[in-house]
Amino acid sequence: MAGCVTLLRAVHEASGYPSRWPEDPARWLTPARLVAAWVADAGGLINGHVALVRGVRAQCLLRITGRAPDQLGGITRLFVGPAARRQGTARALLEVAAAQAREHGWQPVLDVVADAHAAVALYERAGWKLAGTEAATWTNADGVAPVVRYYVGP
């Protein structure tokens, strides 16, 4: 866990993800309804992370998939260290988590803040379809609730 928190700090400082540094980063990395999490490493150093949770309640995802919340597998906490970007690490982590969701019979879904342009481009290149946008239920460090884009996986 310490390696994941260290990497998360580097990602936060380099790109502002997460937008507000969590009071307890280890707890943030293990959200409620966590099913599994994966890390990518190079030479024994963690350079990426992703988690899968069961149950997503975003109305646009429920509408577009026609599924109940517990039939959705949420891909969350996906991040890659600055030195490992643009090497396919994020896409590989995304594919592993989505495959696990499908193995459980869940539709893979995810959300991303609208201004995370690199992440949005990754998801769309990987075949994820935009389901809709909603205001976040949380606020950034500046007190503003960002727009969140919700995607349904292939």
Descriptive keywords:
32% helix; 6-stranded mixed β-sheet; alpha+beta; 6 strands; 154 residues; globular; 5 helices
The biggest beta sheet reads:
6 strands, mixed
Q: State which percent range the strand residues make up.
A: 25-35%
Mean pLDDT: 96
* Structural class category: alpha+beta
Major sheet: arrangement of strands: 1-2-3-4-6-5
Give the overall silhouette: globular
Rg, Cα atoms, Å: 15 Å
How many DSSP E strands?
6
Uncertain residue segments: none
Share in helix: 25-40%
Distance between the termini: 30 Å
Structure description:
The protein is of the alpha+beta class and 154 residues long. Helices cover 32% and strands 31% of the residues. The protein is built from five helices and six strands. The chain has a six-stranded mixed β-sheet, with helices on both faces. A hairpin with a 2-residue loop joins strand 1 and strand 2. It is globular and about 40 Å long. The model has no long low-confidence stretch (mean pLDDT 96).
